[in-house]
């Protein structure tokens, strides 16, 4: 009798295990297919959500001016954002085109004469002799030098074209994200309600607080990282255009990218300063130098002013999360990294604030729950 019951239980267990395996397998297949379908939209939707969270306060203010027409307010902000993206792109593209045309005319000119390399160039360790001979070849016989290094030149041009194409694709992606953000902002009540329900379902009673923390952290990072990078690049870009520096638009774009990557703008500013002093008079060169140096160092006082506003998380936590997230996941990691560290910080602070009695009570509750027999 016992053996028959054991055999029956074993059969039931095997049937249940097979049924559960089939269900889990079908669920995994469904999840994989769903991910493949929505994969192209994940990044634009994430960016759309980030932009919507960042611009929502401005949308509400504009809604008051527009007498409650939130859809129109969101559309206006999206159009302004697209304009901010497209206009600098046109300026940069025009600057690149002018630079390419100028370089082409220069290389096609029969009177092209490059100065010969100084003798001290050959004394540079490891690369000095090679650099000296290459420079001398370009200075004495440009046509032969271009033929000799044609493969390297083609590779450099190809890499530049690839980077330019990637940049254009990124701009298009941000335009799509702005349109998605406009949709999120226009239906913010229903979106906020859905996010609140999901948050409470996932993390419990603190879900709504964490949803608010995520929104505040995103706004803080947008102001403290992207906002500071934009201000810094505008200040430096104005100096480049005022003093008519070649490829001013491209230099401004590179400064903006470096600032977002949390790298000092002086990496590109210092070579430009050296170039300016090589051909400008002392007075304008000094004015340019002071201008770009102050702009390049402006992030040191702008970040403490803008980053961390509206959240109780210390600025170093947000900054470390933004930098680490960007290193591991690219630009979108700026926000994801800051959000993850902010949540962990809040968890740690909540745990530290718990009294020993509360911790003991929680442990005792868990032990009692484990000790109770399962009546299912």
Explain this structure.
Keywords: Cell membrane, Membrane, Transmembrane, Transmembrane helix, Transport. It is a multi-pass membrane protein. With 376 residues, the chain is mainly α. It has helices at 2-65, 70-108, 128-140, 142-148, 150-186, 188-203, 207-242, 248-260, 266-279, 282-296, 299-306, 315-329, 333-353, 356-371. The radius of gyration is 30 Å and the shape is extended. The model has no long low-confidence stretch (mean pLDDT 77).
Summary keywords:
376 residues, mainly alpha, 0% strand
Number of helices: 14
Sequence stretches where pLDDT stays below 50 over 5 or more residues? none
- Which percent bin holds the helix content? over 70%
- In total, the number of domains comes to 2
Structural shape? extended
Mean pLDDT: 77
**Strand element count:** 0
Main sheet record: none
Q: What is the beta-strand fraction?
A: under 5%
| N-to-C CA distance | 25 Å
Listing every helix as H and every strand as E from the N terminus to the C terminus, the arrangement reads HHHHHHHHHHHHHH
